[in-house]
Amino acid sequence: MPASKLHDTQNQSDARGIPIDRVGVKGLRFPLKIRDRDQAEQSTVAVVSLAVDLPHHFKGTHMSRFVEVLHSHGQVLTVADIAGMPRELLKKLHADKAHVEFRFPWFRMKKAPATKAEGLMDYGIIFEVNAEGEKVDFVVTVEVAVTTLCPCSKAISVHGAHNQRGVVTFSVRFTKPVWIEELVELVEASASSELYSLLKRPDEKVVTERAYENPVFVEDLVRNVALRAKQHPQITWFKVEAENFESIHNHNAYALIEQTVER
């Protein structure tokens, strides 16, 4: 059958009267280039989600158009491409709302605190962009692993104190672009100690003693991040979640703060 004669089933009407908030594609992998404060540029691979709203009277959306928009920017995307993509989806799919999400690993070379031995640390990054009409909302999220040491354990124990690794998920809106490095450093400075991928014995001594001298509850951790976020000149909104993988309990400790920053 000629292409002009093929039925467009997605454009058929639907009588159920139920709109869909988001419909699209998920799980696409795509190369990405990110500006890097340390090394100018970094290449990575993102897992991509693209979606739009669907009015109640349409049966379906055109899935191929999402992939067309993604591939229209060439083989490697930039942050500017991502920021403009929701508006492209609005136009391409005749929608009122569009959603774009890129999740990717980001790497940073870190020197151990005593020996200065170098090792790569990885962090989880999420770019989420939503568009509705002329309004575009861009949220950047960093997922940062840290060390925390329990203040209560330190206060009541004759020898030592229990500590654990935790993950902080820190999301921000901003007036001007913020370096990923800034957000990572803000979180790491709020914990008992930051983590490293390569530690020799002198480094382990520094890290464990640093954590012991700087005990924080999970509540302290999110409050520390919140205080630094409110002092950052570009951040207008933030959400910080912390989850500690407890070393002596059969559960995790968790805390969350979400605030709009008045300027």
From TrEMBL:
Its EC number is 3.5.4.16. GO terms for molecular function: GTP cyclohydrolase I activity. The keyword Hydrolase applies. Pfam families: GCHY-1 (PF02649). Pathway: Cofactor biosynthesis; 7,8-dihydroneopterin triphosphate biosynthesis; 7,8-dihydroneopterin triphosphate from GTP: step 1/1. Gene3D superfamilies: Urate Oxidase (3.10.270.10). The record marks 150 as: May be catalytically important. It catalyses: GTP + H2O = 7,8-dihydroneopterin 3'-triphosphate + formate + H(+). InterPro entries: GTP_cyclohydrolase_FolE2, GTP_cyclohydrolase_FolE2/MptA. Keywords: Hydrolase. It is an enzyme of class 3 (hydrolase). Transmembrane segments: none annotated. One of its GO terms (biological process) is tetrahydrofolate biosynthetic process. It comes from the Bacteria. Converts GTP to 7,8-dihydroneopterin triphosphate. Belongs to the GTP cyclohydrolase IV family. This is GTP cyclohydrolase FolE2. It comes from Roseimicrobium gellanilyticum.
